[in-house]
Structures are given as C-alpha cells and as structure tokens.
Amino acid sequence: MRRGRHGLLARAEELGRVRQILADARQSRSGVLVVHGEPGIGKTALLDQAVAEAEGMTVLRATGIEMEAELAFAGLGELIRPVEYLVDRLPMPQARALRMALSLEVAETPDRLTLGAATLTLLTDAAATAPVLVAVDDAHWLDEASAQALLFAVRRLQAEGVAVLVTARDGRRSVFSESGLPTLRLPGLEPAAAAALVRRVADMPADGELFKRLYRETGGNPLALLEAVPALRSSSWAGQVSAGPLPVGSRLTAAYSAQLTALPEPSRRAVTVAAASYTDDAAVLMGALRALALDADILQVLEAAGLIELSGGKVMFAHPLLRASAYHTAAPDQRRQAHRALAGALTDRDGAVDRDQRSWHLAAAAVGPDPTAAAAVADTAARARARGALPAARRAYERAAALAPSPVDQARYLLAAAEVAQLSGRGDQALILAEAANDTTEDPAILAEATRLRSQVMLLRQPPRRVHDQLAELAAGLEADQPAQAVPLLVAAAGAACMGGSIRQARATAERAAALARNGEAVAVLAHSAAVLQAHTMMLAGERTEAAAVFNSREEFLTATDPLAVGVEVTSFSAMDLMWLERYSAARTLLERAVRGVREVGSSERLAPYLTVLAETQLRTGYWDDAYALAREGADLAGETGQPVLHAYALSTLARIEAARGRAAQCSEHARQFHGLLDSRGAELVSPYIEAALGLLDLGTGRDSEAAARLNDLQQRVGDLGLREPTVLQHQPDLIEANLAADDPSAARAALAELQSQVQRAPSAWGHAVAARCRGLVADGEDTAENAYREALRHHERLQDPFAKARTELAYGRFLRRIRKRRAARRPLAAARQVFERLRAEPWTALAERELRAAGFGTPARHRGTHAELTEQEMQVAVLVIKGHTNREVAAALFLSVKTVEYHLSHIYAKLSVRSRVELAGRLAVTGD
Question: What b/e readout covers 553-572, taking b as 16+ CB neighbours within 10 angstroms?
C-alpha cells in the first residue's frame, strides 16, 4: 500500500498551519514546521498534500531511509539534486565545500560552518526565481551530516521565501526534534473521520461494536486502521484483539510480518535483498538477485503483492515499517547473504557513494573479524572525515575496529574514532573511545596519542582541579619508563591547575613537565609546549620579565607549529600571555592562524577556546564589535560542545563590553548564566572575570558603594589565589576609582600602593599608564596630579587600548576643569568623549559630555537611538557594511542568507533614517575601520 494514497481526512487545523507556511513563502517570508507523530499517523500524507499544493514553487524533497543513515550526505544530495546546477554560482569556498561533501570534487576538508552556509546560500539562490518548499520525510533516519547542514541553514532562514516541512517519528532521535524549531504533533483521527476512512477503503459499515474496539486498539491511527481492514472483514478478528492496546509500531510490524511470512521462499529472499540495499537503484538490486540465482521478474511479483513499487528504475517500499519488517524478520544468515550479494553487485562501480555502500555491505556480511571489511569501512571513514561528515566517520571507524582482527588495528581505528569525536564536539564519546584504544594495545605510539587526546578532552570539559589531579596521577605512572607520554599529561595538568586558580600547584607541575622534557627523550614540540606552559605560570605569578624571555626564545615555535599538533592549552595560554605582554599583533596572528586551521577540519570543540581568547584580544585593543561577535560565537560553540569553563569565559567578555556600554540588563543576565555554569566547578581563575565586569558596570552607572564593595572582595580573592600580574583582570584602576567615589581615600591609596608594587616588579605600558592615572586621582597637590596624568598619557602612546586612554583623558580633563583650567580641559575631554561615543560606551560618553558642559563647552549632537534601537544582529550587519563588505560577503561572514542581510539592512536604514551606505557610515563610527 503506497503511503498517502487515500488522502487527508479531518486534518483542517494541521493543514492550515502548513498552508500558512506556503503562503508566507510566496510573500518572501521563510518558515519551518517539524511534524511529529507515531508511525502511520499521516505525516507523509500531510507532506504529500503540501507538495501537491506547492504550485509555482520549487520543491526540494528528501526521505530518510534507515539503511542509508550511515551514508554521509546521502540526504543532502537527494534534497538539492533539482538545484544542483546552482552550486557553481555560490561563493567559491561554499561551492567547494558543497562539491566536496557531495563527492563532486576532491579538496580540503570542508568545515561545518562553511558547509552549512553553502546549504543556506543554495536555498536562498533557488528562492530568487521562485519560492521554495523543502520537504524532508522521516528525518529521524536522515544521515547526521545532511541533517546538521540543513539544520544550520533552516535556523538562519528569515526573509528568503523558503518553506521547510520536516517529519519525524515519535521516540526517535532527530536533530530537528531537539533544535527548538516550531513543531506540530499529529494525533489520531477522530472517531467519525476514522469511520469514514474505513468505509471508503473497506466499503463496509463502520459503526458497530467491532469498529469501536478497532478504534480503541489503533487510537485512530490511519495506517493501523487500513492494515486492519482485511481482518475487519473476517469474523475471527474479534478473537484476535489483544487484551490491551499494542504500540502502533508493534501492531503494524506484526501485520507486515504475517504478510511477509506468507510469501513463497524465493520472494522472501528477494524482499530481504531489497530491504538490505542502501540504494533504490533497481540495477544494483537486480545484479544482487542474479548472484543469488533469483529471477529479476520476481520484483513484479513483489509489486503485485503491494510490497514495493517499481518506477523510473527505482525500487521503493510501500512503507518504511514494511522495509524494516522485511529485513528484521529474515534469518541472520539470509541477511548476510543479501549484503554479500549487494556488495558484489557494487564491485565494478567506482563512485565514492558506491564504494561506501559496498564497504557497509561487506561489514554487514561479515561473521567475526574480517580484515577486508575492516579496511573497506576504514576507507569509508577516511572519506567521510575528508568530506566533513565527522559523525559518519566516527561510526565507521568504530565499525572498522569491531571488524579488525589484530589488537593494534583495533586500537588504531578506535583512536581515529576518538579523534573524530573530539573534532565534532563529542568529548564524552572521545574519552570512552580513547580509553578503549588505550586498553586494547600496548603499542607505544597509540598509547601516547590516546593519552594526549584524553588529556585534551578532560581539560576542556571537567572541573579543572579534578582534571589536574587525574592527569598528574596518570603522568606519575609514566614518568620513569615513558617520559615522552608523561610530558603532555603534565602540560595539560598545569593548564587545568591554572584555570582552577591553583597557581602555585600549576607552577610546580609545569616545572616538572619542563624538567622531564629537558632530561628525557621528548620530541621538540613537547619540550616547547612544556616551556610555554611554564612561562604561563610565571606570568600569573607576576614574573613578567622571565616569561617574556621564554616567549622571545620560542617565537619560531609559536609561529611555525601547527596549532592542531599541540595541546589546545598551549596555543590558548600562549596567546593570553602575548596579550598580557601587550604583543597584541603576535597574539592575534597566532589565534587567527589557529582559528583558520580548526575551521578547515571542522573542529568546533577546538574552535571555542581560540575564539574566546581572540575576543578578549580584540576587546583590549578597541575592536569591541569584533570582540562581541567572536565572544558570542565562542559562547555558542562552547555551550554546544559541553565546555562550561570556556562558555563562562566567553560570557564574561560579553558582560565586560555590556558593562562599559551601560547595558545593565544584558550584563546581569550574562552574569547569571556565568554563575550557573561555574558555581561549584572550581574554576577559580575564571570566576573573577565576571566580578570585574560587574564592578565596571556598577562604577559606570553610579553605584559607587556597590562597585567598591564588589571590587575590594575581588582583590582579596585574587590575592588569595596568588595572582600577581595586574594585566590579567585589569580591575585595579576600577577598584581605586570606586574607593575614591565611595569616599574611602585610604582604601584607594592602599590599592594603589599594591598596584604600583606589582607594576614595578612586572612593568607594562598598561600598568604604568593606569598607575600614573590613579596617582593623579589620589594626589593632594595640583602639580603632582597634573604631572601624573601627563605621565599616564605618555605611557598610553605605547599602548593600543583606546578605552583605557580615554578613561585617563577623562580623569585629566575633569582635574583641569576643577582647578579652573577650563580651556585646557576641553581637549582631553573632547578626545575622551569621541572615543567613548565611537565605542558606544554610553555612561562614559554621558560623563564626558557633562564635564564638557560644566567647563562651558557645548557637545556635538548625538543621534538619538543610533545604536540602542538596532538589534544585536542588525548592528553586526551595519558594522560589516560600513567596512565595505557587499551583502553577499556580509552573509558569508555572519552565516546568513543574502535575503536576510537585505532584510536587516532595510530595517537599519529605516531606524536610522538613512538612504545609503555612505549615510550609514556617517551615523555609525566603527573602531578599527
């Protein structure tokens, strides 16, 4: 029985929602609806009706098939086939990514974001000529790589004219079901509609006690009702009714099993081969049937029985449950024979998809270890990884390990699966797989790599202090006999101790790693990694000069080494140290290279730490919009990949920018999320970042006493941790200013004395500048204060930190006004105001303007609502447009469709009352243009 053949009954409400999405698409609005329900409830019929009503629309349709779930990008290839000609018109990186995913080109591995953006752009381009209906049936069986690419695109649709309808079965995992998209659950038919269906199909009354019992048993499920019709005609049906209702899937499976069991033996064998096939290509199926000495005409017999449909060289089952029943009711040996025959039918085909299908058939046909099947599935895994289909690659490597006859090969495949799991953000799976590899072999190289990978995953996902203890204990067991394996464990352990705020412990562990690397036979990259981690602990302890010397001697290592070849903590902490050393360009270069590298392999787990550190680098150097976007992306990725410490760190950067801009509600919300992630986790060196942001918010919004109390508590905590490098948190100038504003000059002087002591021991341009500024704030004499401010400004000339300099200019201007040097005050106050406005630091802009007016000077008119009225994404679009990017380039950068960028831009123009990009540039000043 073909699905959807009997049309829709009593689905007015559900059909209304579908029709609304189609109508919206015809008005250039996009929408999505995920339809849930049990098997046979009518999901496909609803989808068929939508397709039938999509007149004048481009219909892109794909159906998930259980047997194809391991074939990477099978669903995406089917979906976009009608518009595949548009691929070559995409931006080059996106076109290359999509061609690679679909095995149309051999190139570098496409990263997940580029592939998702390519799918989005393709849908948008298709909608440029006619509205598009994307119809995906049985999404729970769609291969994960296709589902992720499509989900990425669907989440970003807005104003393109694309309607998306997805169906998924209850109780089956689907990325669409778990994504928060709008949903619709199909219930069973009402009794009257169910009776109408039975009467239509069975041509018999449906109003007696027998029908009522049938309705209770099926819950109004249309397919279950239809499958029961033959039995309904039989008086024996009443005796077959179960004591209680069966799950619909079980009832349908039982009905199909009975139908299959009644087939002649050759037909049963043939239907098993059809069910086992990963393709609906009739030529492949007939080749397999010939290998089993079965006549190809037997397919017509199966079609006559209503089991399959033959059309256009394809073989399709009447219902997925029928296919599942045909496969699972067959004896295991019959299934293996079917897979073996199908593998043989694909032997002469050389396409990548054909090779993948053949390898999975060989695996399914194997009984016990099989080196040929293992090698074939491992090749499939490698191809999947190269195409960016990381989930498919992981599962294939796991299957290869199960088939491999030797422990070394088993461990090698398990380790490959662990690496792919880590790259795709599945850290928990990576740990399990790496431990399995470790337990399978004694091979030193595999053990070393498994140990390294485990340390990386633990560092990013578990409470830092616990990670330190676990890794240090592992290293202790290796130091004597396998020092090269112990070094990366100790390096990661030191990094974990740093995040946990155990600076002294981190220092001791890092020194242990460095000594072991120097005295043992560790390779150069391990020795360098140990040295830079040791330097990181020096920085935290205030030994700035010593740390700088280490980085000067390791510059070639930092600039030449592949970031993927060293621990994530090595690159991240090195970039932090370079940032604290005020070598901003070097830090940015290192991080941008690391970001490019991990994007190329699609490693979202490794991308998050690099983005978060890069965000803080951009924040410190005045590129606040870039910093906000990077921190937002870093927070999202860290959240998706289960890295709470990094997630919180990224949120603190967002909060810091919001604090400076006076966005109290957003800053407080991110602080709440921060505490929810880190409370009781022991990340003591990360926790202070949010307190520094909240202290700045209090100070900027006039909550002086609250700011002083919060920042004094923070200073006590920092001291207890042993953190002696003032450039790490940069909270001490705020502390001193807050104490003064709260009328506690003695506390301000004490805090200044501590800051100056730290700066003297660890000199930096920022430290000298803010210490001089604070000396001006607390000075008793006018000459002393003025000299201090001028000294501060001289130090600022060596520092790329416009906000810090503007804070000094504001303080200097206020001082000059108060000693009645009003003309002299104008220049620093105006300069400070200009920077504050450009950075959108609203409280500080307002303060500078008040000081200018108090000095007797007017201030330039500000456009009301210039920034506050724009949404976060509108601001991102506006910034990129001002920087000269085309709409297509903006779309690629923000992973949006061009239509969505146009939509946002029209709203931006309307809100700001501008008519061109030139006028827009005049309304928004972007730091770092």
Answer: ebeebbeebebeebbbbbbb
